[in-house]
Amino acid sequence: FDKLKINEYLWVASNNLLKNYTNTQSNLKEGTISTEWFTAKKNSNVRFKILIYILGSVLYEDNIDIYTEKQFNQNGIWKQQQTSGAFNVYLKKRIILNAKSLDPEK
């Protein structure tokens, strides 16, 4: 992980967060983890895609970026919709908290 300049705990915590989604892809060399489109549990007319970038080797909040896409189904056609910034912040906080719990030095 150090050689790749990827924080191991951010990597593991991010994978833990996304492990329940089908077709999750990880690229350790690039520091990316992404999902395919998945449907919201509460509303099958809404779907999301998540992309996480691990940007550095230190367990630091600025070393992780999260991008989400959201679409809604309108008469059988998927249309883009803005995701809330709060959703990305929520995901980031969950990853940071989990990463800190994995790090024996924190």
Tell me what you see in this structure:
The structure is a single chain. This protein is α+β, with helices and mostly antiparallel strands and 106 residues long. 27% of the residues lie in helices and 31% in strands. The protein is built from two helices and six strands; from the N terminus they run H-E-E-E-E-E-E-H. Strands 1, 2, 3, 4, 5 and 6 form a six-stranded antiparallel β-sheet that branches. A hairpin with a 4-residue loop joins strand 1 (25-27) and strand 2 (32-34). The protein is elongated and about 50 Å long. The model has no long low-confidence stretch (mean pLDDT 92).
Class inferred from helices and paired strands: alpha+beta
Number of helices: 2
Q: Which stretches are low in confidence, meaning pLDDT under 50 for 5 or more residues running?
A: none
Mean pLDDT: 92
Which percent band covers the strand fraction? 25-35%
- What's the story with the biggest beta sheet? 6 strands, antiparallel
**How many runs of DSSP E, i.e. beta strands?**
6
N-to-C SSE string, H for helix and E for strand: HEEEEEEH
Distance between the termini: 18 Å
Rounded radius of gyration (Å): 15 Å
Q: Which word captures the global form?
A: elongated
The residue fraction in helices comes out at 25-40%
Question: Summed up, what is this model?
Answer:
With 106 residues, the protein is α+β, with helices and mostly antiparallel strands.
Which terms summarize this structure?
106 residues; six-stranded antiparallel beta sheet; alpha+beta; 2 helices; 31% strand; single chain
